[in-house]
Amino acid sequence: MSALNVNGALPPPLLSTLQINRETPVFSREFLHQLLGKQVEVKVVELLGGGKFLVDLDGQQLVAQSRDSLPVGSVHRAQVIGISPAITLRLLSEGSTDLFPSLREAASWIMSQPNAFASRLAELQHLLPQFSSPMLSGLEQVLQLFSGTDFFVGQEGMLPSLLEHMGLLLEARLATTGDSRQLVSAMLKGLSGHNLKVALLQAIAWAATQPAGDKLGQLQTVLQELLSLVELNQLYNNPGLRQDGGLVFIVPFLVGETELDVWLKLQRQPSSQTAAENDSLFTVTFFLDFPGFGQTCSRIVMLGSQTVVTVQVAGGRQRELLEEQVPAVEQQLAARLGHQVAIRIDQVMDIELTAFRQQYFLDDLPNLINARV
After folding, report:
1. Which helix (H) or strand (E) segment is 91 a member of?
2. Alpha-carbon distances of 215 from 124, 207, 236, 324, rounded to whole Å
3. Closest by alpha carbon to 347, among 323, 372, 373, 371?
4. From CA 95, how far away is CA 104, in angstroms rounded?
5. Contact, 81 vs 365, CB < 8 A?
6. 92-132: per-residue pLDDT in tens?
7. At residue 178, what are phi and psi to the nearest 5 degrees?
8. Report field, pTM of the whole predicted structure over 0.90
9. Residues 126, 131, 135, CA angle at the centre, nearest 5°?
10. Which positions ≥6 away from 226 have C-beta within 8 Å?
11. Residue 257, number of CB atoms within 10 A of its CB
12. Dist CA 237 CA 121 (whole Å)
């Protein structure tokens, strides 16, 4: 597949992508945000020579650069996978053996739909009472883990609880078991009822044995979509696909009627080559789009006995509401961590929040979408 560099603004990428300089005044910012995650058509209009082409994108003619020969008149499907610092489109080919379609669709959902994971979890919560089967009881129990803030509270801390409840280490656990009987035992007894991925797999297997019907079809669709989102979390943390270190999770929450996806990034690096582990620089990055409140970005930086929290919001009222909570939250965190905590609330522009999400989360997705599985 080919790589296009529109307007020659950026060096040709290694991935099969098309890039457009954000300074090109062809598309509005609002249009670009709506386009993120969608598929578009790119038509080669004219060969300009020197590896350059005139292409048509959404009715606009732009100069593109390619390392490969693209015939005049050819039309290419492409997916918009980034809008900052450049508009990045990944060229798609017929019969591609890249990421499974269900996982590619899941990546598109989380880029273009606010709280896509939590909305499907809420839909499942609505559907389950319409079915009466003990095979779904484990799934009902798992849904309770995603209600409220107890998700991050566990005996060993936030990360072990996150990995356990989401089922992100399922394959690693099963790989350490012995024969097939032990494997099945580990899945059904050791993990059942406490693990979203196992509960989804069990529910999908049960649904496949039931008589067809509209309600069952709805249930099967939601189950498969949620399974794709869990597996996307697993691929997101594959060290062979990520562009930088750390762990990244998209965690769904159901708080009353509120559906909320929390984007979470964890990174640890020594403050120096000789630093001990307790002197490492540990950062936790959050992004969320809270219904009725708006987008919120946060960075927690911990180094030794110092913890600094920076929160960014777009509105003055949002900033005032959060500032009212700062003293109490600082006190709670200080009691938990055993040292003082400083929290700062900043009011920024909407475009800065979008750039924050792009920088810390979405910039990894081009490699993920180009994964071969």
Report:
1. strand 86-92
2. 11, 11, 32, 46
3. 323
4. 14
5. yes
6. 754 444 566 777 788 878 877 889 999 999 999 999 999 98
7. -90, -115
8. no
9. 110
10. 117, 120, 121, 124, 196, 200
11. 7
12. 22
